[in-house]
Amino acid sequence: MQTDLVAALDIGGTKIAGALVDGHGRILVRAQRPTPAQEDGDTVMLAVEEVLGELTSTPLWSGATAVGIGSAGPVDASAGTVSPVNVPGWRDFPLVERVRAVTGGLPVELIGDGVAITAAEHWQGAARGHDNALCMVVSTGVGGGLVLGGKLHPGPTGNAGHIGHISVQLDGDPCPCGARGCVERIASGPNIARRALDNGWRPGPDGESSAAAVAAAARAGDPVAVASFERAAQALAAGIAATATLVEIDIAVIGGGVAGAGDILFAPLRSALKNYATLSFVQHLTVTPAVMGTDAGLVGAAAAALAGRPSTPVAGVG
User: Fold this and answer.
1) Cα angle at 138 between 135 and 141, to 5 degrees?
2) Domain tally for the chain?
3) What is the pLDDT of residue 309?
4) Residue ranges in 57-153 assigned as alpha helix (H)
5) What whole-number distance in Å separates Cα of residue 220 and Cα of residue 57?
6) Where are the strands (E) in the chain, listed by range?
7) Closest C-alpha to 112, from 30, 10, 15, 5
8) What CATH number does the domain containing 94 carry?
9) Residue 318 lies in a domain
10) Cys-Cys crosslink for 124: which of 25, 133, 245, 280, Cβ 3.0 to 4.6 Å?
11) Tell me, what's the pLDDT at 97?
12) In a domain, 121, yes or no
């Protein structure tokens, strides 16, 4: 029987994914359900239970020693509750308690989805070998997590490193979080597209007005599209530099759909970073794309579960 096997859940507004993952980060069994995001809390939990049911019915389940959960947030790891913005039926929902009941009392570790992706990139991905790192997801929102001193640093509630809600424009647009000028309000995919449209960019014949469409226009030389990505890159650079100056990270890893723009995002980001990361101890900060892809949430949740077990320290995830 494997003794380094854990269950992992990756819970978002679109899908609930589950897996059995070994101590090397290999996914051995998978299960998935759509998230019934607009239904009541118990209906959403039923989908989680169906995913877990697929995992518990496999012969490998007997070797599982813990459960890791990476969830859309806010999460409160100290209370074991989740309140995902895009799942209104879950408000202070006791997810840890409910999952523990379904899995026969196994230990459960809860972290935010940005922290989960950070754990994955540090354990198996682009931040491997770095003791101090920021990993980010730039997509519909902007999230992130920190590795400090070689260890994942989720903070007391599991939300540390949430770079999307650092303000980089003091009198900027109001953000849904209640603050102004947040990184997310400038650099998220929908806001890149919104700014391009506001400044005169128009979609092509297919009518697609996403950040990916803006990126395609930027690659074709559209100056408004280029400017919208440059503005997003500037906001990201300011947020990354602020984080690096505060806690001395040496690498920032960026994933998510917006990072798929490639050099349309990364070239102006690296250029802008020189204007913000100016002190000697942050001048050599590296910015690089994430490599873990769509499995990052599951692998990161597994890393948290493995690290949470007192008897089994795992290199890079402790």
Assistant:
1) 115
2) 2
3) 67
4) 95-102, 113-124
5) 51
6) 5-11, 15-21, 27-34, 64-71, 75-76, 81-82, 108-112, 133-138, 142-148, 151-152, 251-255, 286-289
7) 10
8) 3.30.420.40
9) no
10) 25
11) 97
12) no
| Residue 270 resides in a domain | yes
Q: Tell me, what amino acid is at 217?
A: A
- Reading the block at residue 174, the tokens are 């109001």
What pLDDT is stored for residue 310 in this prediction? 57
Distance CA 241, CA 235 (A): 10
Closest CA to 30 of 39, 22, 20: 20
Residue count (the chain): 318
Residue labelled with tokens 């999230």 = 143
Mean pLDDT for each consecutive 10-residue tract of the chain (318 residues)?
83 93 95 95 97 97 96 92 91 97 95 92 96 94 94 89 94 92 96 97 90 96 98 98 96 95 97 96 95 94 86 48
Domain that holds residue 17: 5-111+301-308
CA angle at residue 196 from 194 to 197, to 5 degrees?
Answer: 65
Locate 14 and state its tokens: 């679109």
The residue among 193, 243, 241, 201 whose CA lies nearest residue 221 is 201
